[in-house]
Amino acid sequence: MRVLIACEFSGTVRRAFRALGHDAWSCDLLPAEDESAFHIQDDVLRHVRGRWNLMIAHPPCTHLSVCGARWFKDKLPEQAAALAFVRELMAAPIPRIAIENPISIISSRIRKPDQIIQPWQFGHGETKATCLWLKNLPKLVPTKIVDGREARVHRMAPGPDRWRDRSRTYPGIAAAMAAQWGE
Ligand SMILES: C[S@@+](CC[C@H](N)C(=O)[O-])C[C@H]1O[C@@H](n2cnc3c(N)ncnc32)[C@H](O)[C@@H]1O
């Protein structure tokens, strides 16, 4: 299966699909953290046409997440641009699509998510509500429900790389996507 992982610098979901034999590529404006050859460093909207069977997209949530709700009135143009980007990803000519984001205004401005998952359902003892908007894909089935309900962000030291660590996809969720959506 040819799989495009949109807006991914970490390679976490790409590696999970490649481990199962899929022709998976990540794409981000940033270089791949793991320096993989299977990474396209570019605007993903220039690469959505033509050849993919599945796309999993992690668009930026900076201007969409409800955690930033108190700043919403100061960033309406940024918000409109972020929503337009999500709409373009949702409308990409790819038969199966999953868009991933935290609890965000995508729900009120575009549509409600098909599913909300948690890391603790996939082997990580942490909370981080993650919404999935799905096209022609089944809901993800939890693979390993574990104890522990800590929010990962509370353990992270402040610093320039904090956003990277916060935004990285959990490997357990990536493995479930590959196993369940790669069929
Ligand atoms: C919330 S982070 C997702 C990180 C991802 N979960 C991972 O594990 O690498 C959003 C990413 O979208 C990327 N991005 C923003 N606009 C983009 C575009 N037009 N094309 C490709 N990537 C884009 C950013 O550089 C950022 O790395």
Structure description:
- The protein is α/β, with parallel strands linked by helices and 183 residues long.
- 24% of the residues lie in helices and 21% in strands.
- The chain is built from five helices and nine strands.
- It has helices at residues 12-19, 76-90, 106-109, 162-167, 171-181; strands at 2-6, 23-28, 39-41, 54-57, 96-102, 115-117, 126-127, 130-135, 150-151.
- The strands form two sheets. A seven-stranded mixed β-sheet has the order 3-2-1-4-5-8-6, sandwiched between helices. A two-stranded parallel ribbon has the order 7-9.
- Helix 1 (12-19) links the parallel strand 1 and strand 2 (23-28).
- Helix 1 (12-19) crosses helix 5 (171-181).
- It is globular and about 45 Å long.
- The chain starts with a strand and ends with a helix.
- The mean pLDDT is 92.
Describe what is shown at a glance:
With 183 residues, the protein is an alpha/beta fold. The chain has helices at residues 12-19, 76-90, 106-109, 162-167, 171-181, and strands at residues 2-6, 23-28, 39-41, 54-57, 96-102, 115-117, 126-127, 130-135, 150-151.
